[in-house]
Every structure is written in structure tokens, then in C-alpha cells.
Design brief:
Length: 215
């Protein structure tokens, strides 16, 4: 669904910033995704990540991949330590170039409401989008504006995820965003709602892009 932002284009400075967003220079960026597994029955699952970058933190420890027993409610039991986890977490640094040609310019104090509505429309459950918002909102709500994008191939090609057995439904939501001092005009993308069917895997993550990366 097309969604018009209330942000107006502010002269040559803002136009130059937006133009630069599509050709950003490589810079070390942190990606912070979490992975939820929802099988239809209790299932042993293996997850591996082929990441174009350096992993800095994983929880539980990644080693050569994650091996867990997954329950339909999303509970995970690590086969490495026998402990319970709510999801798989990883953080890494990469020089991937994200696509900032489509997105939204959102006032900082409207970020929580925007994320609630948009993430629900994309297909995250309240539990999932609330955990997303709790993680990212402290970094975003006090900025004058935030340029918010949701990545597709630019992210998935640099962080290939393999899940065995293969899921029936797979949703990967990755937000690349940048704080702004002034609003810019940007075209919003079409949102394709996600349908959960059978063994479902959901991932959300994000990366903050410094303004210097697009100057």
C-alpha cells in the first residue's frame, strides 16, 4: 500500500542528501537480527548463516551454526547447552550498501506509531514488532526525523540464511535507517503482506546508517 509521508523537500541541501542515499560509500554497519522459529510440531532445526561481514555477537553461541529443538509457540531449546531461548540473535559488521531509494521520512516522536502500524502491515505479530520497537526506539525517538527503509535483496544477499528442514513460510524484515536533522521527500514502497503457513520462520533486524555515509 502506498503511504505518503508528511515530510516536505527542503531545498537543495535536502535534495542533495536524498540523491546521495542511493549511492552510499561503503562503511562498517552493524546488523542486529533475531530469528524466530515456529514449526507445526516439535522439530529439531538447524540454522546456518552465510554473512558477508564479521560476526561480533551471537546468542546462543553460533559456532558452525545453531542446532535447536523448536516448539510451535516459538520456544527454542539449544542442543548445545540444553537451555531455553526465545529466538536466535546475531550481530555483525559489514560494508554492504543498502538501497535507500524508497522509504519513509518520519518525525522522531511519531516513530513508535509508524513502526507499530507498518510492521503489523508487513506481517509481524505484536510480540515480534514490540520486541523490534523496544530494541530500536531508544535510538530513534529523540531524532528530529528518521529516514526509514526496509531492505530486500541488498540485505538477504549479504546475509544468507539456511534453515533445515526448510520452512514453508519465511519472512525477513530488515530496517536500514538514518537520523536526519531536516525532512526529505521520498517515495514509499509497496508493502506485500506476509501469510504464515506451515513451518514459519520470521527474522527482524536493522542497521543505523550514519549521515556521513551518504555525503
Amino acid at each position: 500500500m502506498k503511504r505518503k509521508t508528511a515530510c516536505a523537500l527542503l531545498g537543495i541541501l535536502a535534495a542533495g542528501l536524498l540523491a546521495g542515499c542511493t549511492e552510499q560509500e561503503p562503511e562498517a554497519l552493524s546488523a542486529k537480527p533475531v530469528i524466530y522459529l515456529y514449526p507445526e510440531t516439535v522439530t529439531d532445526v538447524a540454522v546456518t548463516l552465510d554473512y558477508v561481514g564479521t560476526l561480533t555477537t551471537t546468542y546462543p553461541a553460533y559456532r558452525d551454526g545453531w542446532e535447536v529443538t523448536a516448539y510451535p509457540d516459538g520456544t527454542l531449546i539449544s542442543r548445545a547447552d540444553g537451555k531455553e531461548y526465545s529466538y536466535l540473535f546475531w550481530e555483525g559488521e559489514s560494508t554492504v550498501e543498502y538501497d535507500l531509494s524508497e522509504g519513509w521520512c518520519v518525525p522522531g516522536d511519531e516513530t513508535a506509531e509508524f513502526l507499530q502500524e507498518t510492521l503489523a502491515e508487513i506481517g509481524l505479530t505484536p510480540r515480534e514488532y514490540n520486541e523490534f520497537i523496544v530494541y530500536w526506539l531508544p535510538r530513534m525517538e529523540d531524532n528530529p526525523y528518521n529516514l526509514i527503509t526496509f531492505q530486500r535483496e541488498a540485505y538477504t544477499a549479504s546475509a544468507k540464511l539456511t534453515v533445515t528442514p526448510a520452512p514453508d513460510s519465511f519472512l525477513r524484515v530488515f530496517m536500514a535507517w538514518m537520523p536526519l536533522d531536516a525532512p526529505v521527500e521520498i517515495d514509499p514502497p509497496e508493502i506485500e503482506p506476509f501469510a504464515r503457513d506451515g513451518f514459519t520462520v520470521v527474522e527482524w533486524g536493522g542497521a543505523e546508517i550514519g549521515k556521513e555515509a551518504v555525503q
